[in-house]
Design goal:
Length: about 190
């Protein structure tokens, strides 16, 4: 009886040791990607799980007034005064402004072009000329470009509870970390 149990155990052990080069490379690539992907977290603790592409948000919102959702996309611009808003592209040339719930946190000013995951509430909003000019000033646009803003704009707006930025780190004790802490404490 012991011999009968011994044979299947040997077969299973042998099968488990059979690691093809393709499998080994896949595991190695996944490990390298995980190690090299640095994530920075801002606001409430969120995960990347179940995030949908920001390009699909108009369809997902449909006729709803607002929607709680988690989105993944590329950061276009960030407020250059204190990081209190950012924009993300969606659809055909649309740009969605992302603010942070109750100004409870900000993002670094140097994350343009980075991939991000945001979780919060999306809705359509009409932004006044005064607010659009204020945002343009925060962005660092010229006085002529600011003066050229003469019409309100209706677009998607997102209020984020939490943000994850890929391939970005803020080292504890660094000037960036201190700046971030001071800005968060001020609000």
């Amino acid at each position: 009886m012991k011999k009968l149990l011994f044979v299947p155990a040997i077969v299973l052990a042998f099968a488990a040791c059979q690691n093809t080069p393709e499998k080994a490379e896949t595991v190695q690539e996944e490990f390298v990607e995980t190690v090299e992907s640095k994530l920075a977290f801002f606001g409430s603790e969120i995960t990347e799980a179940d995030a949908i592409e920001v390009a699909a948000i108009e369809e997902r919102l449909g006729d709803e007034d607002s929607l709680n959702v988690k989105l993944r996309g590329r950061i276009e611009k960030v407020c250059q005064v204190k990081g209190c808003w950012m924009t993300m592209a969606y659809g055909e040339g649309g740009s969605m402004r992302v603010s942070f719930r109750d100004y409870g946190f900000f993002v670094p000013k140097d994350v343009d072009g980075k991939e991000a995951v945001i979780e919060g509430t999306v809705y359509m909003e009409t932004t006044s000329v005064d607010d659009l000019r204020h945002f343009a000033e925060d962005e660092g646009l010229s006085e002529e470009e600011i003066a050229a803003i003469t019409e309100p704009e209706t677009s998607l707006t997102f209020v984020a509870d939490g943000v994850i930025i890929r391939d970005y780190t803020v080292e504890p004790g660094s000037a960036k970390a201190e700046e971030q802490n001071l800005e968060e404490a001020a609000h």
